[in-house]
Write a structure and sequence with these properties.
- The structure holds two protein chains of two kinds.
- Chain A is α/β, with parallel strands linked by helices.
- Chain A contains six helices and 13 strands.
- Chain B is α/β, with parallel strands linked by helices.
- Chain B has three domains: 198 residues, FAD/NAD(P)-binding domain (3-Layer(bba) Sandwich), CATH 3.50.50; 102 residues, D-Amino Acid Oxidase, Chain A, domain 2 (2-Layer Sandwich); 65 residues, no CATH class.
- Chain B is globular.
- The relative contact order of chain B is 0.16.
- The chains are: A alpha/beta, B alpha/beta.
- Chains A and B meet through helix 5 of A and strand 7 of B.
Chain lengths: 277, 431
């Protein structure tokens, strides 16, 4: 069977901050990682390939540096990785991104028919959860979103347990299908040394806009109806008061004790006679 | 199991230099690094010497991520709030062939790894080497912590840093002792370029270093430093573990005390701490240096205790040892003699180089500070008092002043002790 995984390189959002003056993302020096949901999508594809036989192909859209993420992804045991990279792709929103990925997946499908496309449920830098369903729609594949478990798979169908608002849903779809993956789907593997070594020297295939039949009006900024009007951080917490104890330790402690009672952090029980000393 | 000519354990300057020179000699070479990429776990004060680096990557300054060329080295002795300073500045050091640059290791080591990859070295990250593989008495590779993790090699180069887990297991590194290891802590403090250049009297892009002795370490054997980066300062302090344990100072308190010193406070004022780093430094010197080879194995860099603490040199010793080890590994593989005797060529070449010669010259230093623990406490104080008296203009005649100074000196240190100190220091440092 042929599994395709869509994978995005994202800034490690735990280290991204927003410039409080310009309200833009400060990405400089922030390490890039594989979108965590996509890593679980890849893991599931590899597990199913190991069980059913076949091949895992990774496809990603991004700048040339995303090659690093693809190498890392290959170390988990994928068979092929393709990077879609072109200046014309820059600025794409989820609609245009789904379009660009779909055209590439159609080419892959023509080379080797696809059974399942896996994507993460969303990317941690955008949180839209639109790209996966957008691809399924354009491909005309059945879509199983928010998957937490592949219950059953055969050559013609797949049964997936889905996370829904109020509980779980088990849904079966005919293949080819697209599954978007939650983190609960599986635990990531620790790559084997031979796979690490294969990945260390692997050169991902690079496809640009010219290598595929793209309609330039549907990609990049032109093909993106979404506009982000403003990004802003939630209001910061005001810092606590610092009592300087470097010179006058006794005074500082007395000051602290006073404040602890003043702010009612500690209260004296009314039964205690005379209150505090 | 895949087979290599050379496996290098550890992706620091020593390991990457070894891999580069082995690969350049045509060896199939792999570096195994436990961090996310080479540089993530690597720490030093921050001075990279040109000569040793150039020997590994010619004209490296054209593409390496360097902070600033060092044009001034200042030395300071702190005694309480007082400071005695000396320094040397040569603007010519801002031009090739330079003398040294400040660097941030997380960037520099990553770049060095890329140079190694260009030379054909394979770099495997996030992987820990757990042990050497033996066939009889012969080393034939390494075992990593990953599944199917054995790798074969003709020569293994241990560049695993100060902790030297594998080298210890193989009997090639001694157990660390509190008197042979220092702990150093450092902060990266961000400052606007212009402010930084003003405070250190530098032209745009130039750099300076300051080493501080005496009360910068509360008189313990060690040093403190302030180095200029592009838009930040590296400030840190390191001291031997033994006096730290004895006096119950924590490294963090040492650093905070340093930052509060009047001379230092003004240099870092208004800066924002961006990073906090800590690392062990092997300070055992010549006497603690292990045997540098055995059949199929060479030991380089911190793992071999190759640090010259007095001159704050380490990365250059590491890179020079790495380069020699890579060359010797290739030579032994080509000649087919991987015996302990064959590999001893590396130790010979090291002994003929400045690396072991310098360590040998300072071999008495550790013992000297052990037997003269007051040295870095009393002398900065005596010198500061003397300076204070000398520079004070009151109505004392100069002749009287000289007498006062001599009297003060002998009050602080008896004549016999003084002679022993001076002779000891001369033997340990200058002889």
């Amino acid at each position: 069977m042929h599994f395709v995984v869509c994978l995005k390189q994202v800034p490690d959002t735990s280290e991204v901050r927003i410039d409080p003056n310009t309200n833009t993302l400060m990405r400089e020096g922030v390490p890039s990682i594989i979108n965590p949901y996509d890593a679980h999508a890849l893991e599931e594809a590899i597990r199913l390939r190991d069980k059913m036989g076949g091949k895992v192909t990774i496809v990603s859209m991004g700048p040339p540096q995303a090659k690093e993420a693809l190498r890392k992804a290959m170390s988990f045991g994928a068979d092929r990785a393709i990077l879609l990279t072109d200046r014309g792709f820059a600025g794409s929103d989820s609609l245009a991104t789904a379009y660009i990925l779909t055209v590439a997946i159609q080419k892959i499908h023509a080379q080797e028919p696809i059974d399942i496309v896996f994507t993460g449920k969303e990317a941690i830098d955008g949180d839209t959860a639109q790209t996966g369903p957008g691809i399924a729609q354009r491909l005309g594949f059945a879509q199983l979103t928010y998957g937490i478990k592949v219950r059953d798979i055969d050559k013609a169908s797949v049964t997936v347990e889905r996370k829904t608002e109020g509980g779980r849903e088990v849904a079966k779809a005919l293949l080819p299908a697209l599954i978007t993956v939650e983190k609960e789907m599986n635990d990531l593997r620790y790559a084997t040394l031979p796979d690490m070594m294969k990945a260390a020297v692997y050169e991902p295939e690079m496809w640009d806009a010219k290598s595929l039949p793209y309609d330039t009006a549907e990609m990049g900024l032109k093909g993106s109806p979404t506009s982000v009007s403003r990004i802003f951080p939630p209001p910061g917490r005001s810092g606590g008061e610092i009592i300087d104890a470097t010179t006058d330790t006794k005074g500082a402690i007395a000051n602290l004790v006073e404040k602890v009672f003043q702010e009612n952090i500690i209260m004296v029980h009314p039964a205690v006679k005379g209150g505090r000393a | 199991m895949e087979n290599f000519d050379v496996i290098v354990v550890g992706g620091g300057p020593a390991g990457l230099s070894a891999a580069l020179s082995a690969a350049k000699a045509g060896m199939k070479t792999v570096v195994i690094e436990r961090g996310d990429y080479p540089g993530t776990k690597n720490v030093m004060g921050g001075v990279l010497y040109t000569k040793a680096t150039e020997a590994v990557v010619p004209d490296f300054w054209q593409s390496a991520p360097l902070e600033r060329p060092v044009i001034e080295q200042r030395y300071g002795f702190l005694s309480g709030d007082e400071t005695i300073l000396a320094g040397y500045r040569d603007p010519a050091w801002a031009q090739p062939p330079y003398n040294a640059h400040t660097v941030l290791r997380v960037k520099f080591d990553r770049w060095l790894a890329q140079q190694a990859e260009k030379a054909g070295v394979m770099i495997i990250t996030e992987t820990v080497v757990e042990d050497l593989l033996y066939k009889g008495d012969n080393v034939v590779g390494v075992r990593t912590g990953r599944a199917e993790g054995d790798l074969g090699a003709k020569v293994v180069i241990l560049a695993e840093g100060v902790n030297a887990f594998i080298a210890k297991k193989a009997g090639l590194a001694p157990q660390m002792r509190p008197d042979t290891v220092a702990v150093a802590v450092k902060e990266i403090i961000q400052l606007p370029q212009e402010k930084l250049e003003d405070r250190f009297c530098l032209e745009p892009g130039q750099g300076a270093t300051i080493e501080l002795f005496g009360d910068s370490t509360q008189g313990m054997m060690g040093t403190a430093f302030v180095y200029t980066n592009k838009d930040s300062l590296s400030i840190g302090v390191g001291a031997l573990l033994e006096p730290l344990i004895r006096t119950k100072w924590t490294p963090n308190d040492l650093l905070e005390a340093l930052k509060a010193k009047p001379y230092v406070k003004r240099l870092i004022q208004g800066g924002e701490t961006k990073e906090y780093l800590a690392h062990l430094i092997p300070e055992g010197g010549y006497n603690a240096m292990p045997k540098l080879h055995r059949q199929g194995v060479l030991v380089v860099g911190d793992t071999a205790m190759l640090v010259n603490g007095l001159n704050r040199e380490g990365s250059n010793l590491a890179m020079t040892s790495g380069k020699m080890a890579g060359e010797v590994a290739a030579q032994c593989i080509q000649s087919g003699d991987l015996s302990d005797q064959g590999m001893s060529l590396y130790e010979q070449r090291m002994r003929d180089s400045f690396v072991v010669k310098d360590l040998y010259k300072y071999r008495r230093l550790g013992r000297f500070f052990e037997t003269h623990p007051h040295f870095l406490k009393v002398y900065p104080e005596i010198a500061a008092n003397a300076m204070h008296l000398y520079f004070t203009a009151d109505e004392t005649s100069k002749k009287e002043r000289q007498k006062q100074i001599m009297k003060m000196v002998f009050e602080k240190r008896a004549k016999g002790g003084l002679v022993s100190d001076v002779f000891g220091a001369w033997r340990a440092i200058l002889k």
